[in-house]
Every structure is written in C-alpha cells, then in structure tokens.
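dude i think i finally got it to work??
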Amino acid sequence: MFRQISQFISDGLEFVEEKIPPWHVDRYNLNKIMDVVYQRILASFFRKADIGKCRIVIDDYGIGPTLKRFLNFLEKQGAEIIIARKSDDTYLEARVASIIAKRNREAVIKAINENDDYKIDGISIGSGNAGNKQTLEWLKKWYSSGKPWPWFIKRSFSTIRKIEGLKGKVKKIIPPIRDNLLSEDFKKELDSGRLNIRALSVVCPSCGTTSKAVLFTSGGKGFTARCPSCRGPIEDLNFTLRYYCSFIVPDSNVINRGLLGKDLEKSKFFEDFTILIPAVVRYECDTKGGKKEFERLGKFASIGRIKLKEVGEFNPSKFEKMTTQERDDLIMKTCIEENAILLSADNQVKGLAVSWGIFTIFVP
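look at this
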C-alpha cells in the first residue's frame, strides 16, 4: 500500500513523521504534546502552501484551547478545518497518514527484533502487540530475568503492569513544555501560521535574559543547557525545544568530537530530535572520529531513538574549492531552510549563526 502511495511523491505528496517516545507516553498526558506538534507541523507546512487553499483533517483526541485558537485563525484565512473521531474511516488524508505511521512503526520493530541486545533466551519481541504470543512470552521472560525494561517498553500499559503485579491506572502529569522559555516574537510568528527559527530566542527563568544562544555544558550527569549570562541551568529546555522545533543541525566540530553520541548515551538532551547532516558537514567529517560518530548515530536512528537525515548534494570537488566561510554559510542556509537549531562547538560558527539570526546551542 505504501508503494502505491509513494508514487504520488513526484506529484507533490509530502509527509512528516513525529514520534512520541515511550517514556513520554508513560509519564505525561499527551494532549498538550500533540497540540504543540500539530501547530508546529502546520506552521511549517504553510511556509510552502497557501492557507486559503488547504483542507486540514485532524483526528479528534481532545484538542486543547491553544490549538483550537490556531485552527480558528487558519479557518479565518480560508482553510477548511475538519476535526473528527476515527477520521481514518472517512477521510483519505487521515487514512494515508495512518498507513505511513504503521509502516514506520514496523521498521522500528524490525530493527529491535534484529538487535541481539533485546533477545532473551533466543526470543525476540515479535510484533510488539499485546495480543501476540511471542511478544507476551518475551515480556514475561525479560521481566523474570531481573533486567530493567528496555527503552521501547511502555510501562504504563496494562499488559506490563499486570506482569509487574501492579493494579490501577498510572496517573499522568502535564508535560513540561514551558512556553515561558520561548521569546514572544517566536510565539507570535507561530500563532500567525509561521514557523520561523530566526524569531526564536530563549528567556532565562532565573535572570530574565533573552538570548539567541544557550550554553551546553558537561558534568557528572551529562550535558546541561545553561544561560550564557547567569550560567544558571535552564530546566526542561530540551523538552520544550523538542516539541516546538525538533530539528538540529550539528557543525563539523560537534560530529568530530562525538558530542551527540555522548549525549544520547548519558544525558539524552537530544533524544528523539531530528538530526540533520548537511552534505558539507559529512564532507568535513571524513575523519576517524567523524566516521565513528556517524556509525553511532546510525545505530541510535535504526532503533528510533533519533531521526537522522542528510540534506543537500554531496559534492566533494565543489567543497574542496570553497573557503571555510563559504562552507559555514552553507550550514547557516541549511538551518534557515529547514527551520533548524544550530548545535556548534566552534566560536566562529556560533558568532556567524547569531549574525544570521539563527538560534544556537553552543558547546564551549
């Protein structure tokens, strides 16, 4: 079915996949997360499309007031808005989205099944569905082994709680998406149907400073985001940026130093972000450290911990003739075109990004 759908990509079909990690499903009420993600996807889409010529179909999960206001704004601009329960029974857009989502889930399940780290007594997880005999057998054997549940297990689900001997439903909390950390300019742009990385700044909750860059420092527990003015930690910034922005472009220094891999193994600040690798960064990271980091990121991507995507044409002969400034400019252009945050470990690149108005996470 997906092969039939993919024939229409050449005619303009596009799709964006978003994953909510299992540990977020276990802990948080998902409605706020879904409200923010839908608004971000739509605002990004309207960079290319005329709002007044669009039909928007959303499966009704219990949409909150913020997204409702945004949809009302789009409707006043001429968009057709449809919010319906079981929308994939009626609307082609929702049905196609459902097929694409199921296909991508199967790809992750396949990667987990092929990973020997997740086998117990020679048994892999099977389909991952609660009604699958192999999955149930695997769950019971894994729990009996005394090992902690792997990252992909939703511990709040009744099947897992029954195996653990727990009763009742898990009480979930409001997700720590802290709108107060985001600049008013960014929020106004978003509410007007425009996702604009150049409008993004972060407001320090401790000293009130508004900054186009934050520090990303390492310590005993891994990496922490800090205000460049007061050096205080900015709690929940990764969670907030993950759902409002989602895209990260690392520069060559970040890749060659293996900083993303180190974070994903320990502090997990960038867990479930989409990591965009510009072709020029891949060219500059044809080093021992760069190759090792790309391999490590590929493994994280294969099991769904991050999304990894290369952007731009890989043209070594072209890059060889470029100055360092020209290569850095290509990275800036990628950030703007993809509405992505820059992750940099180079003072010069950070300064260039700020001059372009690009929000930057900087590793000193």
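The mean pLDDT is 92.
im so relieved honestly
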